[in-house]
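> call design_seq(struct)
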């Protein structure tokens, strides 16, 4: 009886190992994970993988977090209004026009 139980446990471990995603399969998900945009089941798999102390994926996620932070992907909150966008673009146009050289005939 005990030997049969051991074989069943071994079978479950083999099945679990087959279902685990490899580092190469997880690589495209680093940025989604870092930006908080990843969903299950990939989210759980990446978290489990990182909990196994994979140095390659831990370093990759660290770089993705730095990138996401530097590009503002980590920002949360209310989306800016269309009016704010229009004001910012108008200010940018005014600034560009002021910086343009004024050519005058001699």
């Amino acid at each position: 009886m005990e030997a049969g139980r051991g074989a069943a446990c071994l079978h479950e471990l083999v099945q679990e190992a087959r279902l685990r995603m490899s580092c190469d399969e997880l690589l495209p998900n680093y940025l989604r994970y870092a930006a908080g945009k990843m969903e299950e089941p990939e989210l759980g798999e990446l978290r489990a993988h990182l909990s196994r102390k994979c140095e390659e994926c831990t370093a990759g996620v660290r770089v993705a977090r730095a990138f996401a932070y530097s590009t503002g992907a980590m920002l949360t909150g209310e989306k800016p209004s269309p009016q704010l966008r229009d004001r910012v673009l108008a200010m940018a146009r005014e600034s560009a026009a002021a910086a343009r050289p004024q050519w005058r005939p001699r």
